[in-house]
Design a protein that fits this description.
single chain, 374 residues, alpha/beta, D-Maltodextrin-Binding Protein, domain 2, 6-stranded mixed β-sheet, 5-stranded mixed β-sheet, globular, binds calcium ion
Length: 374
Amino acid sequence: MSQDPIARRKFLRHSLVGAAAVAGTTAACSKPEQEAGPAVHTQKSVTWRLASSFPRGLDTIFGAAEVLAERLEAMSDGKFRIRVYPGGELVPNLQVLDAVQQGTVQVGHTASYYYIGKNPALAFDTCVPFGMTSRQQTAWLTEGGGLDLMRSVFTDFGMTTFPAGNTGAQMGGWFKREISGPGDLQGLKMRIPGLGGQVMSRLGATVQVLGGSDIYPALERGAIDATEWVGPYDDAKLGFHKVAKYYYYPGWWEPGPSLSYLVNLKAWDALPKSFQEMFTAAAAESATVMQARYDHQNPAALAELLKEGVELRQFSDELMAAAQKSSFEMLEEQAVQDATYRKIFDAWSKAREDAYRWLSTAELAYSRFACENL
Ligand code: CA
């Protein structure tokens, strides 16, 4: 990571000061601690504030930030704490990046694709339509150079990014009527934000962007014909199945969306190396926990929805093919406008192709057999 050498120099400086303090008490006493910087083992407490884009009620996603804070506090013997604020408490849900950039908070918990208005390439930190699955996205980010590419974009905003968990493939959402092919999307009023919304619009739908609490009443009174959200566990809580009985899959616009912790670089650089390592480890653990909670809770939630009369439907191959064509046309249009976007898009495309070739070889073949022989 680009800021590592700076952190290492600081760590060495801190360690030398620590050694001096051990060697001679006068040296330690004569130097004001603030000026010299404390040794790691006598590190002063650090308290950060975290602004989330998500409500407490979305416990799977929001819970990741709580895991992060709990683990950091435990690992640091209470010396590195993060106060976690749910969406809207400190700053509006979709202004978390701005709050990190301004230093209002040291860390933001959000989805980078909320900020494509600032730089369209930020979408690749989360996901784009017809992108990668959760595991593939994680592999590209953490091992395939994706995170380095994304961090080079975030540096322009004075911050860095850490993966904060993944919902896994989302559902296509709730529809009041059946959708057979792309023709049925003509004039369909659907709540679907972001790049998925842009593709739906290209396919003829009338797209609306509504906040979580406004969706149910709009669907109930017929102001919209359809909505997407996340998956069974989260969707059931919002009650969409009571007013739209067709539940479509897959959510091709979000096959593996990765959430993010955005960290202000000045705050990051001011941390001792040991706290940086703790943050990195706790963030990774929280991401694993978040994904596992979804994978554990979604099966039972879907079974419960089916018991209540929900009609499960799969998008037709014809619709999927039209949507994929439209999606890649859109991504290509964005790539020709910006060299950084092009660089990330090309690296991502190669990783995507390689990842699906491998997935279809063993994992998919095994999963298909297992699913067909339950
Ligand atoms: Ca969604």
